[in-house]
Please model this.
Amino acid sequence: MNFATFKSITESHWNCYFDFVKRQETISDGVSLFPSHIIVMNNGTHFSYELIGAKRTPNKLQVVTRKCSSLNLYFNLFPKNIDDNEPIFNLGKSNVIQDLMLCHQIIFEKAKHRFPFIETFQSIIQRTDGEGALITVGHLADECCIVNCLLTSSLNEIIRCKHIIHLGFIIKSKTGPDYQKFLNHICSDQNICGITTVGKNKESMSIMMQLQSLFLSDGIHETTTGSFINKHSQVIERAFKTKKLIYEPYLNWIEHDGSVNKNENAINPDLLIMREDGYFDIVDLKLAGLRFKKLTKGERRRRRFIDYVQEGLAQLANYEFYFKFDGNRDHAENKYGLHVKDPQLILVVGNLENFDYDEVAEALRTNDSKRFTIIDYDTLSRSVLD
Model:
């Protein structure tokens, strides 16, 4: 089986399955949350998929690809973190792990501060020494499934946590019919697959843990993060106290001062969010920057942003420039109902591992801090709980 076949079977199966589920009359004391995306991965010896998202209403799943060279790296949560300690689970033939939290005992209390949802898991297996992955994939692993599990990993006192709603993988030597048989088997159980049922006041917690799991995943594209946020608009609505947002408007250059290259046909901001006065601010979504130790460089008096952040600020400044011309503003108003005046330029980038609030404030001095706001993804995700 090749990757294209794996991807096609995965998309078709899960869309048909959730379409079937939503047509059934089910009674539940809680809220049923459906996935919004399927992440497919080519993991060297295996193909894998992961269902992510927490939506009350099921829609066609968006399929995205994540770069991850091995399943062991996926379970590790840190790139190139080699762990000589024995894992809790070394997956073999046709294993299923369900409803467990796997963690290191030494980091459990510390982890709760950043990942409050870990307290919702009752079944916990702890390892008392070492760092790194708690699950590895053995050479006999052919087809396996992980359902509603929480993984933690640590490296140099940094903790990461990932909630897996539903993950499946199959060895590449299997055929397409073999894979379809595997999917049919895991969905034949009386329990509904891929759907999370939570208490009516726990929906926000589910969204938070899915967003944190996503932005702490190496190999995720900016477009995937943006798409997830668009599907879960309450993240932005609560973070910025807005009642209306417009995702990825495509706005042609109608008017400019001659400095715009003829190949620049339009701007395509990630988000525009409406303020209380009816005008819109502009948001650019970068990644959490997992490969960067810090978002700034230089000593205090010369503090400045690394190029990755500076590129985001430059992008925002270009969007602001677009709205300085009457022709462009009229076009935006006619096409999307957008009114832009003195916009706040908001960059979402970084995470608690590399975001130092004091240093970011110092670096903003050279970028006109009255125009720009920078927020990290941990703060953004936590705002869902407010």
Observations:
- The first strand starts at residue 31 and ends at 33.
- Residues 39 and 86 are 28 Å apart (CA to CA).
- The chain has a mean pLDDT of 90.
- Residues 3-22 form the longest helix (20 residues).
